[in-house]
UniProtKB/TrEMBL annotation, chain A:
This is Peptide/nickel transport system substrate-binding protein. Residues 28-65 are annotated as: Disordered. Residues 121-526 form the Solute-binding protein family domain. It comes from Anaerocolumna xylanovorans DSM 12503. The keyword Zinc-finger does not apply. Residues 36-58 have a biased composition (Low complexity). InterPro entries: Peptide/Ni-bd, SBP_5, SBP_5_dom. SUPFAM superfamilies: Periplasmic binding protein-like II. It comes from the Bacteria. It holds the Pfam family SBP_bac_5. GO terms for molecular function: peptide transmembrane transporter activity. GO terms for biological process: peptide transport. Residues 1-26 form the signal peptide. The lineage of its organism: Bacteria, Bacillati, Bacillota, Clostridia, Lachnospirales. One of its GO terms (cellular component) is ATP-binding cassette (ABC) transporter complex.
TrEMBL record, chain B:
Its main location: membrane. Belongs to the binding-protein-dependent transport system permease family. One of its GO terms (cellular component) is plasma membrane. It is a multi-pass membrane protein. The keyword Membrane applies. The chain crosses the membrane at residues 14-34, 211-236, 242-262, 323-345, 382-402. Coiled coil: none annotated. The lineage of its organism: Bacteria, Bacillati, Bacillota, Clostridia, Lachnospirales. This is ABC-type dipeptide/oligopeptide/nickel transport system, permease component.
Amino acid sequence: MKKNVKRFLSLLLTLVMVLSMLTACKSNKTDDTSTKDTATPTVEATDTPTAEPTEEAVSPGGELPRNETLYYGGLQWGAVNGWNPLSDDMNNALAITQAGGGSRTPMFETLYMYNMLDDSMTPLLADGDYQWNADRTEITVKIKSAAKWSDGTAVTADDVAYTFDTDVKVKNGQGVALAPYIESVTAVDPSTVLIKAKLDDNGKAVNPLLVVAYLGQTYVIQKAWIQKVEARCNNDPAAIKKDAGEDVVYSGPYHNFYNDDQKVVLIRDDNYWGQDASMWGKLPAPKYLCHTIYADNPATEVAFKAGEVDVDQQFIPNIQDLWEKEGLPISTYLQDAPYGICVNMPTAWYNMDNPLLQNVSIRKAIAMAVDYDAINANAMTGQSPTFKDVPRSVMNPTDGEQAKYDKDAVKDLQWTGSDVEGAKKLLDDAGIVDKDGDGIRELDGKKLSFVAACPDGWTDWQAAIEIVAAAGKNIGIDITTQYPQADVFQSTVTSKKQTEYDIFMMWTDSAGPTQPWGRLRMLTSSEYNGVDNNWAGNWGHYSNKRMDEIIKAIPGESDPAKQKEYYTEAVKIYLTDVPSFSLMYRPDQFHAVNESVWTNYPENGDGNNIPPLVLLNGYSIAGLYKIDLVK
Amino acid sequence: MKNTIRQVFHSPKFVVGFVIFALMLLMVIIYPIISPGDPLQMISKGSFLKPGVYFSVYDSINTNSKTIDLPEANQKRLANKLSDTDKVSMVQWLTAAGVPAEDIDMEDTTSLIKLWNEKYDPTVKPEGMTMAQRNFYKRLDKSLDNILNEQPLVVSAQNQETQTLDEIKRISDTDYVNLKDVPNVKVLPLGTDNFGDDVLKKLVSATKTSLLIGLIAGSIATLIGLTLGLLAGYLGGFIDDFIMFITNLFTVIPSFVLLILISYSIGQDKRGASTVAIVIGITSWVWTTRSVRSQVISLRNRDHVNLSKLSGHSLTSIIIKDILPYIASYVVMAFILQISTAILAEASLSMIGLGPKTADVSTLGLMMDWAMSYSAHLNGAWWAYFPVILVIALISFSLNLMNTGLDQVFNPTLRD
């Protein structure tokens, strides 16, 4: 009897388990369809669980009204450290991100907003276009008279000048990057800024491109506030950079409302100066910008699909399935593949410190054998133009950059991949053969055995590296993959010399006012060799004298024909020497939107000319003024 | 011995477990013979191809076609492109575009499509319509292209010299080819994974690797456990204390943590399948030692052992001849469990990225790891992970069943 009961129970349990599994599969589907029209606000830990979600009753940390909040995903990982724009490690993605391709300006503002779509600079704090002098050594910028700080005082040329001086003085990222190219930023009068470029021996600007980049990259911070920080930090640069800046004065439309390790919330400043007719003429639509801090990409993706994230900056494999198969109200900037504007080129670098990799045949052979179509189709799931569509060079696939070199001149050098026979022949001809019959080729008695690495958890990169390893296997080169933690990987790669990784993946510059020159420099300039903590580029420590000369010559060259000549020669050298090889084209920011609550996001051909950079970077912030609630 | 085996095979539990396990083994051995090829070959461009039969479109055009007239063909074709909900959406768009409701007949698909083709304008942005909805209509419109076209489709090739298109063949909607005549047909019973590998082929090869890992790890763990247990139990005294001290140390440290630490310190370049197996083996012998020791202690003072001692038999001979046979059944059961645990341990290790190298071998855990990284579980690509889970479950289920069956045979208190 007892036994029978046991048997019955076990049977019942099994049945329950099977059923629960089945329903689990099913409920997943029903979830997807139900979220289509019901946009449920994110449920977060609330300090005041009884608070009514009405406009007046929103307390910091309380539940935000869904139809006044724009939720972000994929930008912020971990709690923010503070709000001090003079610092580089505030880990504050929404408020503090300064980059050549367009800084994020919801809280702090730059003089201009860069737009990667047409390579233009739209005035933000500045008034009208910037003016070069005749020699291209000085830029004059006017400040908008309407521009105000959050404390009501006007933004002046003095603030701009003082910010730059402080950046240089405390040696933060902006100061270090720009000091070699900008001599001074001074206030001619309260509304006029004069930016003087550093000059070389011939009296020409060292790099006019980087002077222009400064305009769209570096925040303007209030002088009075900086002085306050300096006073409380006794002018100690390290202390200034550590200051959390909770009392910071800002000029942008949003500021800190609430943040903890669960979320970051910015609230709109309804007195924002930009509602002046000389700027936007109105306030941005969402009252709150909220970034819930998710554990990882899959967690963000689940929230995004459920409509709890409106704008998502993450790689979603097979993103078209979200709308084609699951019918979710999700879109990307382009309706069809590659779904975004690919401007970045994740690249596999060869470590030239490895004597075997100083052999160009080996470098070229591996690069030729890699199946780039597989990387595109399987690692990027088609979200990238192929190297057949856009032959490799140092330029990204945008028309502007593609026009900067002579394609026919380098045609014979551009490989499209999967050329296993060609790669084998190249190695055979170079005398690099397998002598001991173990399937692995040797050079000077040393086995061709390499370690290929990229950070752990960077899914598309990992899959790409696996495909590189598979290519090695096909041509008799042993390549093992390694996925260290991102910080370990990056600190190794950015060190002066490393022997851990022979082939490793890093990013390149995206679009920006200095491109494609900046990318060329990043890929090949020997100025970074021997520099410790080098985040700027040439991590493989390649060196070519002629290339260095070209990199030096391009920025000062104003004749487009001559520039094209330089670029073509540089591409030629790059493709001949193969110090690195790009594996894919990739967007600067992944930009997918869920239209459960908000709509009217930027889309290709809508005539608004707003780049798909999560409505934050550079001119993309204009999108915040365009979006609307779904009716 | 014969009798024992007969007894064992009378236990229904054991038989069921054995049959499942044997089937898996057979599959591992036979499938690579009937479907040869490298399981890690990326056959598809594009990840997560659905399970099914894929045949070459190119070849089917060049295959002799037969005319078959099926009455339902056109309706099926329509229904495939246009579901009822799509029709409702079309009506909604048309109404929003100002077409009077009486002009729209949802029942008559043909006239609906004609009306649609006439009225639909992709550049129009109806008030209140989201980008996602507008894109949906654009896709729908595209899929309806040529749907009513009853003219044959023309296949043409580009003439290399004149760059003109030369007609090769006309395909009418009643043309069929026999799948057997198409030279290139690829059956993908479980589709492909994120790398574009054939999942079934990979699964079989992964099962083999995982079984091998289980076998190696199980043997190592059982061997260490057995040797230490026998020595500790039989010799006693200081050696017993010493071995038990080490064993207890290992018991206290969670073996999985140890496993992670060792795997991490080995580094991925040296982490082949056999290395992982050895690492798992040397971290999971503890419980075998403890139980073997306790069994040996109870055996140590039996009469026949004392007799052997008096007769001057050597230590090894006593252990092997007089003690081992009494605990053999237990050891076999422990071994089976070790195999199952080791397979699970490998899967867990690979899931957190500490398994063998992806480019070298496929293991069950690695398959799960990549399916998870490419969010197969979120995208509905069940074929990339569910069969793997099933295989893992079946392996440990069959092994555990065999174990319980053996237990019932050898343990008198559990007998029916």
